Amino acid sequence: MNELLTITPIPCLRDNYAYLVTEVATGRCAIVDPSQADPAIAAVEAAGVELIALLNTHHHWDHVGGNTTLLKRWPDLAVHGHSSDRDRIAGQTVFHEDGDTFRVGGVEGHVRHIPGHTT
To answer: What is the pTM of this model?
Structure first.
């Protein structure tokens, strides 16, 4: 079986995870919900991959807390989030709606907006 993506959990905070999602063919990657920058940076460096995007599922600090520091290190990152989080996700540059598609390298992802808790 050919692998298109690898997904590597990144422990953050005391009881949370971010995820390093890497396209195997190119080594381009995204980090999902980087609550802390240092563990995310360490994971990118250890994997020897090219970080191109942050994928934020929603605006809460335990999902976006590392964005600002990661953007200082990699200022050209695409920062994805739902359009309803405009002005609530630090550095957000891509504003998705339900059903949108996006790419991590050559692999296409599909956006599903599933509102949950709001506080």
So the answer is: 0.94
Q: Are 106 and 24 in contact (CB under 8 A)?
A: no
Residue 108: partners with Cβ closer than 8 Å, 6 or more residues away: 101, 102
Instruction: Report how far residue 92's alpha carbon sits from residue 88's, in angstroms, rounded to the nearest whole number.
Output: 8
What does the H/E/C string look like for 52-96?
EEEECCCCCHHHHCCHHHHHHHCCCCEEEEEHHHCCCCCCCCEEE
Measure the CA–CA gap between 104 and 51, rounded to whole angstroms: 10
E strand or H helix at 31, and its extent? strand 28-32
What's the pLDDT tens digit per position in 99-110? 999 998 899 999
